[in-house]
Amino acid sequence: MDCCLSMQKAAEYNLKMHPMWQGPLAVPGGDRQSPIDIVVRKSVFDSQLKHLIADYDPTTCQQIWNNGYSFLVEYDDTTDKSTLKGGPLQDKFRLCQFHFHWGESNAWGSEHTVDRRLFPAELHLVHWNSDKYSLFEEAVMEDNGLAVIGVFLKVGKRHDGLQKLVDALPAIRHKGSVVEFTKFDAGCLLPNNTEDYWTYHGSLTTPPLTESVTWIVMKQAIEVSHDQLAVFRSLLFTSAEEEVQKSMVNNFRVQQPLRGRTVRSSFSPFLKESPSDQDDQHTH
Ligand SMILES: [Zn+2]
């Protein structure tokens, strides 16, 4: 079975079936939609792209909830205690939440792809511009309002940092459930190498799909175990009251056209890759 085709079918099925995609906000409007396929050799090396500075304070972590489409780990964003600066960003951005997208199998699940390569899951760390705006709700509607870091997950050894999160998931199995979740350092989910990334202007991949996002997609994936991903898949799209329970899988959006946008890279794609990077390319 062709992997990309079955993934596309799974996503389209989800778009039709999942209530989140049935409202007017789910209709994409513009020319800067996400996610996209990153074509490595078409990305443009930009030597001006700086190092990212993710300065996260674990004490701002508050709770984890199943919103019926993914699970969100939410941070107190009333102060500048957990911020992202540098990279392609001119301003300071506050961490407000992170979440994942994943597939029903390890063959697909990520929203972005790299040269059409699919990953089993993708982490999104969502930040809003606290230099220009005073609330997430304000920033989400504006150009340069949001910065989202995307990190690919690949199957390998167990991720110790992620395990604390995985252990909390059975408590939020059903849609709408929330539990306290504190002192989690979101920085532990970043890859070792945060210097190499792609960046482009895009949108949220869930309604309202606003084109307010500076995407920063990490080149290096993080490794998690199959068992850890299996716990993601044990979550439910449905609330406890619903008669037919539905597994939370394939919660990713179909890919969107690039429409003339440029994807910039912080590294030169034409330099020979290190052996460890080579290894990253063959685990799918
Ligand atoms: Zn997302």
TrEMBL record:
UniProt GO molecular function: carbonate dehydratase activity; zinc ion binding
Gene3D superfamilies linked to this entry: Alpha carbonic anhydrase
Cofactor(s) in the UniProt record: Zn(2+)
GO CC terms of this entry: mitochondrion
Alpha-carbonic anhydrase domain sequence ranges: 11-267
Role according to the record: Reversible hydration of carbon dioxide.
Protein name in UniProt: Carbonic anhydrase
Taxonomic lineage: Eukaryota, Metazoa, Chordata, Craniata, Vertebrata
